[in-house]
Please model this.
Amino acid sequence: MENIKIYRGSEWRRWDLHIHSNASDGTAIPAEIIEEAQSKKLAVIALTDHHTVKNIDEIKRLGHDAGIVVISGIEFRTEYGSKSVHMIGLFPDSYDGKLLDSKALNELVLCPLGLSETEIISKGKSSDPTLDDVAAFKAGMFLVQVDFKKAADLVHKYGGLVSVHAGSKTNTIEEMKHDGSSPKNVNYLYDSLGTVKEELLSKYIDICEIRKENDSEKFYHSQFNLPSIIASDAHDKGCIGSKFVWIKADTTFEGLKQICFEPTERVIIQETKPEEKAGYQVIDSIKFNGGIFYPQTLYLNPNLNTIIGGRSTGKSSLLQCIACVIDPTKYKPESKFLEENVNNIEIKWQDQEAQLPRDIEYLPQSHMYEIAQNSAKLNSIIISIIQSKDSQNLLQTFDNDISNLNLDINQKVAFLFRLHKQFTSLFQIIKERGESNSIQTEIKNLESKLEELKSTIDLSSDELQQIDQQNVKYAQHIEKITTIQNDIKSLETLRGKSIINDNIIYDFNVLSEIVAPDITKSFSELKQQANQEWQTNIDKFISKLESDLQTRQKQCETIASSDLYKKGLQVIEGNKAYKDIQERLDAEKKKLGEIKDVETKIGQIKTQKDNLMQDILNLHNSIYTKTDILVSKLETSHNGIDIKPTVKYQLNKLQSFLESRLNLRGYERQEYVKNIIDSYMTDKQKVLSIFIEKNLMSQIDYKNGNNAENTIAELLSTNWSEIVFELTYQDDKFIEMSQGKQAFVILKLLLEFSDKKCPILIDQPEDSLDNRAIYSELVEYLKTKKKERQIILVTHNSNVVVSADAELIIVANQHGKNSKNRDNAKFQYIAGSLENTSPKDTATEFILESQGIREHVCEILEGGRQAFENREKKYGFKQIS
Model:
């Protein structure tokens, strides 16, 4: 099976840069050191024997075969300090075209410092003449010293780095005596600097090797821009890797140099791997299966991946294809050209899932600028940000409250129109049958006529009086019986209705599975209990009415069966004139009772209507009250961005709503709508109550498909205001910013406020930003954000790549006469780290393989070489190779 090299650029790996072998005062042979390094999962080690490089060539060969990178090192005893300050020279494999093997290091470094094997043996034998050469060398190595500055200059001359014991280690630079006026007798010697010590740290030392985490590492960085490491200083096999440092770099000497440029970003002292992200939130690789793409696999870094290349080299196409493959429902290819080739790409995630739709954030070219110019989109983004940060569920509570208000308003409007329909029907009864005053007048007239006819009836005045009383009682009973029967029917209808609002169950959706089932069960039980009690109570009312009904029916039967009542009926039946008037009188009295009942109901319904209308208007006003309360709680700030919400009324939207529904033919109708809009802000209650009354009285005409009830319900349940946000960044108002700064603020909004951890795909975020803004804002932002989320970014700007210290640079190329790809593929890519460097190879015809990544950056990106030099100057690096 083919051995595929997986390369992701600068990655966090374990490095142990201080190990001794049996060539000096250690006990392990090279093979044992490599074996132990493998078992401790070390990626890079440095063999740093005292004043010798005897085992360098062998351990490098063994390390190469085992996949362990070995850096050549020498530990020196210097003339400084009461116990001699130890320094280590770390060397590249070659310098200026010359291989720095053990022979070269002996000749170029050790011998010029008076550290030849012969000189050291001689020094050892001078202390004990009985020693053989091996023993004399091991004794002599601790009897010789070198000039610190001379040795450091020699290390730098051949491209090396100088590491010094520091902090609380033994043989540390901190034991140097302080001269000048610096204070003495301090607890930690690095708290006070002598002039010589300051000079060494400023001009000669590149790396400080401390004893443990937090042992003055911040001091060396803050005072001298120097990185701090820890190492095992192993003298036997078991100690190798017992202390190590995490370095984010290629496993090369050039990779090690990066910690001098990024002393806090590239090196971390801790046990666990830094900046680890969840596997399902990191894109592992992109596999190209042909088409317009050269068949290859790109392995991505979990941090910052930048895609660079000349014009039309497939940078944005690659980014867009990644988005389309990961989430095809959300992102579609912008051209048929890409649509035909997007299926030739496979995405694998770090958790080994492939072709699985997952969440990403894809920000196409000019995306931020377009949002900045669209206030509605910007407002929507801010609301989504606030939602993600809403730990008190203010927005969710507000939405629920508004939904409940809408439901309540709609139900009440429907009931208002039902009441008005009942009111109209009852009023029509009065209109048709007459009102109570007129009926009472008629009754008086009939009673007078009946009184005149009593003299013609063969009944005594007492009998007539008693019969009249019985008639009244009988009529009253009959009227009540009718009412009771109607009430029983109504109660039987109410008995079948639930008194609990079932809509509340939809509010349970916001609850977790911990409590939701119990709450649902409790609600169901309470609902059942309440409805049972309701039905029981209704049954009691019905039973009581039925009892009253039976009593009245019996009383009617008693009256109807009495001799006097029968006699009266016989006499009245024999007197046609009296009978006619009596029947008319009975009818009018019955009608009066019915009309009074109708008038009573009309009065009740009118009161209900008035109260209901006021209730509806109050509910409508509550929408704005709740909106104002919400706005007062939503103001937020984060990392320089202030978000201040305000309420803005959407009167244009309200006007469009009315105009789309009302029939506005005629000037007066148009003016009426205009008056509603003009008065809405100052007197909602009045203008809306008049509008409702006009609708109830059918005085408003509607276009086809619209009606009064639906319009009123929608009008009053709608929030005719919106929450708008004023943005400020570093005290600058968003609307007063340049387009470039607005775009950057949008980027911060999209990513900084977000709690998401999914990958971010950004196409040329530097567009419209000047170089100062790119360096001071965008670069620092990317350096922070890449620790939290994987970023894949297309850019033309060298500062974004170099100053943001991109872990992986993907170079894109389109096949052409002077820029060939393998197999003549239209697009091909190559990936590597900033420290991946090799000079131009004119022998190869394939442009991507012709030079290192650093050289591509310098060639493709404007100001690329300057960006590298500026970075090195920023950290005061001693030697630029």
In short: The CA atoms of residues 467 and 483 lie 24 Å apart. The longest strand covers residues 11-19.
